[in-house]
Write a structure and sequence with these properties.
With 213 residues, chain A is an all-alpha fold. Chain A has helices at residues 2-6, 8-30, 38-66, 76-98, 103-112, 114-131, 135-141, 143-150, 152-167, 173-196, 207-211. In chain B, the strands form three sheets. In chain B, strands 3, 6, 7, 10, 11, 12, 14 and 15 form an eight-stranded mixed sheet that branches. Chain B has a five-stranded mixed sheet with strand order 5-4-13-8-9. In chain B, strands 1-2 form a two-stranded antiparallel sheet. The chains are: A mainly alpha (213), B alpha+beta (320).
Chain lengths: 213, 320
């Protein structure tokens, strides 16, 4: 088990799995098979996968500790970067086909509509996390500071769920589904910090061991 | 279905025809395997792809009606597989999926309220009120998608004129059919049922307002509001109530379903207006199904020269 988790090939395999939704979208786009409202399909699919990957990323630390499989940490950066990848596509479909690359219209929309405001904020907060995801940046920032910065993902996940909740008209089942998982994963951290004390900070960020390979 | 012989052909007697959408595209896409599947029977087609839901409709006799737009008619596949009918679920594909067993026969529409002599219509009686016309209308959803549909029906005024309203009658309220057992998905949609919509009397009497029984030359598919619905082309789609069982003349403005949920988002009037934003999105542009880029939304959905005089002097932002 450990051997599989630490294998280089497992990482490649996980990467390919994470790219499947993107590949599917590309194939469907190429075959004009995105349904009657292709722009909406692109927006909803990339939005869903952003939230999925945020939840997967947040699940790593609890799973690592509960299952006592520290090797899982090897996949956290990749999952987080995939969340960033899908949110970038999500934003581009909004800016492009939806807003017609009209930047002033976009700023107007962001300022005026709170569901866009929170969505955009969630995206902006993910930029520094993606930018500091390399081993070099972790070294430069220092583990403690890097960790503090990367807690911004909690904010992005919460804002992402609110963004979704405010978007739907009356059926809130799917946003509540994400709210449930984000709440569980964040409450676990509160519980973990409270009962286990500071000795087990949520995530080791030493480049050599945890994130670099 | 046609086990008994009846002396007269009625609405329910026309042979139902299963129509599969996108069949040609599907066949092309899967090539030889597709041809084999077609030989093996239509059943396989519907199993092979969940998008190819069948719908049973029958041909209607109609004449060309007035007010037709010359814009490109949307594909029947889009109109039948991308729409809202919350009683059958909130996803755009849910109505097509979940309405196939919906029982639309027998069907009765009751006209009641502030009228001298209320009465009930069977579907066959409704079909004989006026000659059926094809009306090709733009249809704009509040969610920013739009379609062009060749509806079949007649002006609602034709039936309203058969009644003598009391002096109190100022509005018309419509009510959809509701049966929880046939519409189990409705429990999760966050709306109160039965669905209610309404119009001011002059709007209801306007010749554009359609009592609709068909589209694309045939009876309405279940997911699009079979067997009878209302179409109000200058208002957002949710005003065009589906599967109606009641038309009520009344004194007070009807309490309508979406307005009740969020009156700041869904006004009673709900006239299509690119200058009045929905609180959560701009209404200036729309996605026409079948087109990739957005197009500009027109005031009163392009029917301003026919309807704007009804709203003279009204603050369209306040009465959105």
């Amino acid at each position: 088990m450990r051997k599989i988790l630490t294998s280089k090939w497992t990482k490649v395999f996980v990467f390919l799995i994470c790219a499947i939704p993107f590949a599917q979208l590309c194939i469907k786009l190429f075959r004009s098979d995105l349904g009657p409202n292709p722009v909406e399909t692109l927006q909803h699919t990339t939005g869903d996968w952003t939230l999925n990957f945020l939840v997967f990323t947040l699940a790593i630390t609890p799973l690592r500790k509960i299952l006592k499989v520290p090797e899982l940490i090897r996949f956290r950066r990749m999952l987080g970067l995939f969340a960033f990848f899908y949110v970038t596509l999500h934003f581009l479909t909004y800016l492009g086909p939806d807003q017609g690359f009209n930047l002033s219209g976009m700023w107007d929309d962001i300022a005026k509509r709170k569901f866009v405001t929170v969505g955009f904020t969630a995206l902006v907060l993910m930029i520094p996390l993606a930018a500091t995801s390399t081993a070099g940046m972790i070294r430069r920032l220092g583990g403690k500071r890097w960790q503090a910065l990367h807690r911004l993902i909690y904010v992005s996940a919460i804002l992402g769920v609110i963004h979704y909740y405010w978007l739907v008209k009356s059926d809130v089942r799917k946003p509540l589904f994400y709210a449930f998982w984000v709440a569980i994963l964040l409450l676990w951290r509160v519980w973990d910090a409270y009962f286990r004390g500071k000795g087990s900070a949520p995530a080791p960020a030493r480049p050599g061991i945890s994130v670099a390979n | 279905m046609l086990l008994q012989k009846k002396p007269d052909l009625t609405f329910a007697d026309v042979t139902p025809k299963a129509v599969y959408t996108n069949r040609r595209k599907f066949l092309r896409d899967i090539g030889i395997a597709g041809a084999a599947a077609a030989l093996a029977g239509e059943r396989i087609l519907s199993i092979a792809s969940p998008n190819l839901t069948a719908y049973a409709t029958s041909k209607l006799n109609f004449v060309k009606g007035p007010y037709n737009t010359d814009e490109k008619v949307s594909s029947i596949g889009d109109v039948t597989h991308y729409n809202n009918f919350y009683e059958f679920g909130t996803e755009k594909g849910d109505p097509a999926k979940n309405s196939q067993k919906f029982r639309t026969s027998p069907w009765t529409v009751s006209v009641e309220g502030e009228v001298k002599a209320p009465r009930k219509f069977s579907l066959d009686e409704l079909l004989k009120v006026a000659p059926l016309e094809e009306r090709i209308y733009r249809h704009r959803c509040v969610e920013r998608w739009s379609i062009v549909v060749p509806w079949i029906g007649y002006s609602l005024s034709a039936i309203l004129k058969q009644f003598e309203p009391t002096p109190k009658a100022k509005y018309i309220a419509f009510q959809s059919f509701y049966d929880r057992d046939q519409m189990p998905e409705s429990k999760y949609t966050g709306l109160e049922y039965p669905y209610v919509e309404g119009l001011r009397m002059d709007e209801a009497m306007h010749p554009l307002t359609l009592l609709c029984v068909g589209m694309y030359g045939e009876t309405l598919p279940n997911q699009d509001g079979a067997p009878v619905r209302i179409v109000v082309p200058w208002k957002y789609g949710y005003k065009s109530i589906k599967s109606i069982v009641k038309i009520k003349f009344q004194e007070h403005e009807p309490v309508t379903t979406w307005n009740q949920i969020a009156s700041n988002e869904y006004g009673f009037y709900s006239n299509v207006n690119p200058n009045v934003d929905h609180p959560r999105w701009s209404q200036a542009t729309e996605h026409r199904l079948g087109e990739f880029f957005t197009r500009k939304t027109l005031l009163f959905n392009g029917y301003g020269d026919l309807v704007s005089s009804m709203y003279n002097g009204m603050d369209l932002k306040k009465y959105h």
